[in-house]
Amino acid sequence: MTLYTRRQLLVLLVLLAAAGLGLAVGHWRRARPDVADYLEQLDRAPAPVPSVLAPPPGGRPPSAASSSSEIEPRRSRRGIAPRASPASRSAASRVAPSAETVDLNRATATELARLPGIGSVLARRIVEARDVDGPFARVDALGRVQGLTARKLERLRALLTVSE
Question: Whole-angstrom Cα distance, residue 137 to residue 142?
Answer without folding.
Answer: 9
